[in-house]
Design goal:
Radius of gyration: 20 Å
Number of domains: 2
CATH class of the largest domain: Alpha Beta
Distance between the termini: 50 Å
Largest sheet: 5 strands, parallel
CATH topology of the largest domain: Rossmann fold
Number of helices: 9
Structural class: alpha/beta
Number of strands: 5
Strand order of the largest sheet: 2-3-4-1-5
CATH superfamily of the largest domain: P-loop containing nucleotide triphosphate hydrolases
CATH architecture of the largest domain: 3-Layer(aba) Sandwich
């Protein structure tokens, strides 16, 4: 099987998930480490962990964008709890300068995948390339059955991505809206947190809806206008 036939759809990472589009605030040190790893500097292995919905996938895709901007080859894949692909996916990936694997905890307990990943890990590292992984827990807590693989996951640099406070979520909303080309006030941000889902992915989806509604109506996002939109 050739590498070209193995590349999954997730290889086409999202265009707007760059470091410039990520609300930095309390995560400046983490971003700095990831940018270095994406450029072939700093730690050869980085493990990013934290609860879902706080930006791990965004940051891993940002690493790929950064690597490509520097003419390094990069690869991104997100593992799903619903179904694992064939472990043959990893065959040939050692040639990529930067490999980013999201939700790595999903391979735990799958013998074929643990063995394939262990072998890929060694091939990729032997070539001096950089590996960036994410999970919902620290590497030592992932239920990996293969002892040597469990040890390797704990190599390198481990970084914890913290959840945002409500105050920081409002700042993130204002930041994200500005990146999308429109403006919201702190009052509007507070209203959204009080009357809508509080996790960031849902809020980003809502921002897109609000942007479209604001453009269509040619109105600023006031709280009365927000109520009208959310009632629809």
């Amino acid at each position: 099987m050739t590498l070209a036939k193995q590349l999954p759809l997730q290889f086409e990472f999202t265009a707007n998930k760059t470091f410039d589009d990520f609300f930095p605030d309390t995560h400046l040190e983490i971003i700095n480490h990831l940018q270095k790893a994406s450029a072939g500097l700093g730690e050869q292995q980085v493990f990013l962990w934290g609860p879902s919905g706080i930006g791990k996938s965004h940051l891993l895709q940002a690493c790929c964008h950064k690597a490509q901007s520097l003419d390094f080859s990069s690869f991104y894949f997100s593992f799903s709890a619903l179904e694992l692909p064939d472990p043959e996916l990893l065959t040939g990936l050692e040639v990529f300068d930067v490999v980013c694997l999201d939700n790595i905890e999903q391979i735990a307990g799958n013998t074929a995948w643990e063995s394939a990943f262990f072998n890929f890990f060694n091939r990729h590292r032997d070539q001096g390339h950089n590996l960036i992984m994410s999970a919902d827990c620290a590497p030592n807590l992932i239920a990996i059955q293969l002892p040597d693989l469990k040890t390797r996951l704990n190599w390198g640099l481990t970084l914890k991505l913290q959840s945002l406070s409500d105050h920081d979520k409002i700042k993130a909303l204002i930041f994200k809206a500005d990146k999308m080309g429109f403006e919201i006030s702190a009052q509007v941000g507070h209203f959204l947190l009080s009357h809508y889902e509080r996790d960031l992915p849902a809020l980003w989806v809502l921002l897109t809806k609000l942007d479209q509604a604001s453009l269509a109506a040619k109105r600023k996002l006031t709280i009365p206008f927000l109520k009208q939109i959310l009632d629809q």
